[in-house]
Amino acid sequence: MTPVLLSWYLRRCLRAVLLVLCLLLPSLASAGELLTDTAHDFEFTSINGAPLPMSAFKGKAVLVVNTASFCGFTRQYEDLQAIWRQYRERGLVVLGVPSNDFGGQEPGTESEIKQFCEVNFDIDFPLTEKVHVRGDDAHAFYAWAARELGPATMPRWNFHKYLVAPDGSLVGWFPTTTPPTAAEVRRAIEVQLVDMGEKG
Fold this sequence. Notes:
The protein contains 5 helices and 6 strands. The protein is α+β, with helices and mostly antiparallel strands. The strands form 2 sheets. The protein has a 4-stranded mixed β-sheet, with helices on both faces. It has a two-stranded antiparallel sheet with strand order 1-2. Helix 2 (76-87) links the parallel strand 3 and strand 4. The longest helix has 32 residues, at 3-34. It starts with a helix and ends in a 5-residue tail after the last helix. The model is unreliable at 3-8 and 27-34 (pLDDT under 50).
C-alpha cells in the first residue's frame, strides 16, 4: 500500500471511529449516571448550608435516616442520638435527612428544624437541609438507593433507615417501625464496625 493510500485509509478509519463515538457518547453519559455504585458519589447540603459530600464519610459506617419534627415517630431522635453517642468513636455516623414528604410533618425552615432538634433532643449528629426522599424530585442518594435495593426498600414514612458500609455500599435498611436501638440495627452496625477492623 502506497503512503498516500495508507494515509487515506487511516483518515477513513479515524472518521468512522469518531462517528461511532459521537453516536455513543449520549448513551454512555446516561449509563454513567445509572452506574453510580457507591453512596460516596452523592452530596447533600448541611442544615447550615455548607456542602456535605458523602465522600467525607469514607471509611465509616453511616446510618441515613429521613426525619421529621412533628411525627408520631419523632421520639426516635432520642435513639438516634443514643447510638451516635455509643458508636461514633468506633466509626459510625448518623446522618439525619429532614423531609416534609410524609404528612407534611416537617414544615419548618432549616434553622427551625436545627433548633427543634438541639433544644428537644440535644442532637449533635450531622443534619442535612430539607429534601425530598421519594418521587420524581427525590434526592439523588434516595433515587440511587431505590435502584440498588429495589422499590420495596424505599421510605414509606418518616424515620426510614439505610445503612451504608465504610466502602459506600448499601448493606441494609430498616423501616420506620424499627427503632434505631433495636437489636437488629445494632447487629448490622456492629458488623460494619468489625469489618472496619474494630475489635471492641
